[in-house]
Amino acid sequence: MSQCLQTLHDYGLRAIGIGERLLPRSDFTLCQQFTLIGSGLIWNIYFGALALFVGFFFANALAVAKLSGPAWLRKPAEWFIFLFRGSPLFIQFFVAYEALVQLPRAGIDVFGITVQTSWLTRAWAGALIVLILNTAAYSAEIFYGALRNVPKGELEAADAYGMAGWTRYRRVVWPTAMRLAWPAYTNEAIFLFHATTLVFFSSFPAFQQQGDSLYYASYFADKTFNPFVAYPIVAGYFILLTLCLIGLFGVVNRRLNRHLPGAARKIRYRPNLLR
Amino acid sequence: MFASCADPKTLEGLAWLMCYLTSGKHMLFYLSFGTVILLLAITAPVALLFGFGGALASRSRIAPLRWFGKTYTSMVRGVPDIIFFLFVPIALDQAFEWLRAKAYCDPSVPIRQGNDFVVCPAAKLPLSTAPEWVHQSYGVFLAVIAFAIVFGAFAANVLYGAMNAVPKAQLETAEAYGMSPRQVNRRILIPQMWTYALPGLANLWMILIKATPLLFVLGVEDIVYWARELGGSKTSAYAYPHPDWRIYYFLGILVFYLLMTWGSERFFDRIRARLSSGQATMAGEAMRKAAS
Question: Which residues does the UniProt record annotate as the domain ABC transmembrane type-1 (chain B) (predicted)?
């Protein structure tokens, strides 16, 4: 038990570079596997949460642009959504990494100030950017569908109240669209968290062996030639993470539907995992 | 390939590029696109079959069969499927080798020696004396099974939902006509469920297309492998020296996938129109109104 506490102390934050420098090499205990894989989960949550947060705003802008923007806005939005939804996330990671590597190593001179670029090739920045753009495209399609399904009666009621433009959008269209989109958006959030496991299997290197949960799981599976322990542990962690997400999004869902008693249906999770 | 390509050092411009793009390694690269399409062509029907079995099992009246079906359909929920892609091939490989070890090896030698999984040479799969292509196709074979299991579970989900969406009155009418449960399934349920299943299956096909680059993670020499191999910078020791061109190769792959998904979308739009006609759904009603 105390040995496990020591392991927790050594490897609990290993994924962000705190604690023991060397990974365990032999005589792997169950405790080590649980601790290291759990510490890798920090990266999954980091990528998922940040990408979801930034992507949410971007997706809203894209959805509005695709629905009602002028042609010079609508076309790029459509192309952006097609590009990111039509190609595998895995390939997007590769392309982004190779593109970011091409940037000059010494940095770019902008008006005499040297802008460093090397940090972009690191996973925490480069992969995050790809994930933000990817989730923005998928969510934008969901929001676009929801915006098109806002009931006509509500728009007419808003007109009757003398609302127009931004006021009408903020007080009537957007809340209703969010309410309609929320179940699908919950699924998108879950897929995004699952997609974060791809980061360290594409080109992005795991700096000083600081990887995500699947990175450590495959490390253990490679070293022990035994897939029956490490992978079920990641699977278990992800089921927990998924349940937390469903709970969290369920709270928001209830709040969005609070004016409609009985309308807050339980969000059904439909698995469409890969992108 | 061409006679003029015998000495690439002397070539320039377009001629050089043409010779470069038709070199032996590039032919393997182009063939690997075939691997991807082959994987799709094999996996899709097999996964559909698995899904069909899973969906029928989870509607079964026999409790153990139903439990199996329900477990299978909900297996992939909540777990990133790349975990299954990493897990299933190793697990299957070890299962096959374990079975062969039971048959061919000396039973006194333990298979699990500490951290190692060791079987005698006679039980190795494929045999270490086998040619390279056998090793490659064994890898592809394991990948196909992994894909089929994971996507079968997805398809089972979709088909199970579609079977439940067929109007109950139709099935009850069939029963009233004296059809047995098997006849109801075959004559009423299965022909009618496709229109409900199509959106889900189309979505699944798109996801399957976009999952194929994961072959690389399974260690198969697929397009991603060749793109990294060919694109990496080549010194003048090679026949065709060039700087780091990986980005162009990956952009090419990106375009390949965009074309695949775009083409599939067009195809599914057509099928959707055909299946919707005459159905008691919104789309079918709209088509009826438009025609009259």
Answer: 33-259
